[in-house]
Write a structure and sequence with these properties.
Layout lengths: L9 H6 L7 H7 L5 H8 L2 H4 L5 H8 L2 H13 L1 H11 L3 H12 L8 E2 H10 L5 H18 L7 E2 L12 H7 L14 H14 L9 E5 L15 E3 H6 L3 E2 L7 E8 L4 E6 L1 H9 L3 H15 L1
Antiparallel strand pairs: 1-2, 3-5, 3-7, 4-6, 6-7
Helix pairs in contact: 6-8, 7-12, 8-12, 8-15, 9-10, 14-15
Length: 299
Amino acid sequence: MIRVFSVALFLLLLSSCAKPITANQELFLKAKFKPNILKIYNSPISSYKSDASWTTYKKHILTNAKLKRARKFLVEYKDTLSRAENIYHVEKEYIAAFIAIESDFGNYTGESNIFDALTTLAFHKNRKQDFFKYELDEFLTLSDEKGWNPLKQYGSFAGAMGCVQQLPSVHRKYGVDFNNDGKKDLFDLEDCIGTIANFMYQNGWEVDRQVAIRASFKGKRYKGLETGYNKIYSLSKLKNHGINPRQPFTQKTATLLQLRDTTHHELWLGLKNMQIITTYNNSTNYGMAIYKFATKLQD
């Protein structure tokens, strides 16, 4: 078993290489540098953001084929989803939307070596280096807990794994054994149903409440207040800037979300549940994709 240690001590470990190599040092000497992954986090943040083109985003996410698979999933896992709804008070359509968008129901869970990706990002300067040092520690702890070989785990270039693409720290906090087989399996669809529902519940999801409301503004292209998953304004300020909800809106504040389509922009007001979705993935497009996907399943 690999003993878990603080990533901050890695350089000190290497400095003692004249002594017999420990299991920890041997593990890290096998890490492979991934320049393409590092390049992503050294690029200007504006070019990395997934909020640039809703047209491109929805083309790959909101597809009829994926919606068809989601409806089949709702039928096939009806009992498991109903149990998750009863325990965590989260709508089954939102659970299905997360699993559809994150991994296409487990069909694609990533091809990057997690250890290589996280060591690259933890030990080479980038805008989220401290974050990835933390996730590397969490990954090694998770590997110990699960009896994994850290060198043989695969997922996204950012270290996320499984059918709801969870970072090691997120899985350690929210992962559940929902099929009662004695283990929390990142790649088991029943466990993933319970895990994403638990994440939403623990973060304050309000069942049967609005997630986002379309807003009106003058023109087809919006240029005004700054928009984004973390841009929150009072309703009075939004109205003063010509932004008005198209449905009754009782909250005093809202996140101002913008979708940039080829012919026009859409403005949406995000409520508390939208903020929970974008906590999972910090992206306007992601949050709106989950919302629109789930809404289509509810129709």
